């Protein structure tokens, strides 16, 4: 998802200058919200030089490497504050909630999934956003448009952006995910929130507390968790995508140079690298429409 910049000099021009993130029918993305919490090899080294914290970096059978370094995002840090605002702007500027997913690459920086309730409250309450914005670096307001956005997401929009849109984007609707009607798998999260007497615009604390723990978490019609306590274990499935048929000319598993390099640099043989279906228990294979 591209970052759409506002080039005007005042908030009055936002409506005229801001391009909706979902202006193209083939464009979709995720909010990727940062929420001041605790990130891929070279980047970790640069963060180490910046923060001088303890860090870990390794490259063991990983083509891109990975690393870990604690990063404390700060509200008074201008860059961190702008990062926080960007995600919220994106969620508030889209016209079609089906094409803007609330997701994060937990725990790889940004907002871990336990911060979702706060992010949802921020998207649903202008009052809460203004309260939090007042605690940021004083120059943040000159670089973002968030204070000018009056929009407050509805219950339905939050449901779509946090659940139904993911199922559609991943092609899981045909497998009973992302909706509640006949034929669905009955994956349901019940929260202690009464939407009939809760005004998200002002009751944002109730939103945060209510979405923090489910009363019931139901998978395929069975209660697996109640108020944070698991009541059923092992009731899971693995969804995997079957790759398209690979013509012999593109089949690297038969390429002598590739096989020689794999066996030379990896700690396992190529024949042991694939994961067979017998190892993934209850699983669902998703056929792909792609072709080579």
Describe the protein in words.
It is a single chain. The chain has 292 residues and is an alpha/beta fold. Among the domains are: 11-37 and 73-173, no CATH class; 238-287, no CATH class. Helices cover 28% and strands 12% of the residues. The chain has helices at 14-17, 41-51, 78-93, 116-124, 126-133, 155-169, 204-212, 256-265; strands at 29-30, 56-58, 66-68, 100-101, 188-190, 216-219, 222-226, 229-230, 238-242, 283-287. The strands form four sheets. A four-stranded antiparallel β-sheet has the order 5-6-7-8, with no helix packed on it. It has a two-stranded parallel ribbon with strand order 1-4. α4 crosses α5 and α4 (116-124) packs antiparallel against α7. Mean pLDDT is 81; it is low at 1-17.
Name the average pLDDT: 81
Placed side by side, the strands forming the largest sheet appear as 5-6-7-8
Oligomer: single chain
Outline type: globular
Q: Whole-number radius of gyration?
A: 23 Å
Q: Give the SSE string.
A: HEHEEHEHHHEHEEEEHE
| Unreliably modeled segments | 1-17
Proportion in β-strands? 5-15%
Instruction: List the total number of helices.
Output: 8
Terminal Cα separation, in Å?
26 Å
| Helix content range | 25-40%
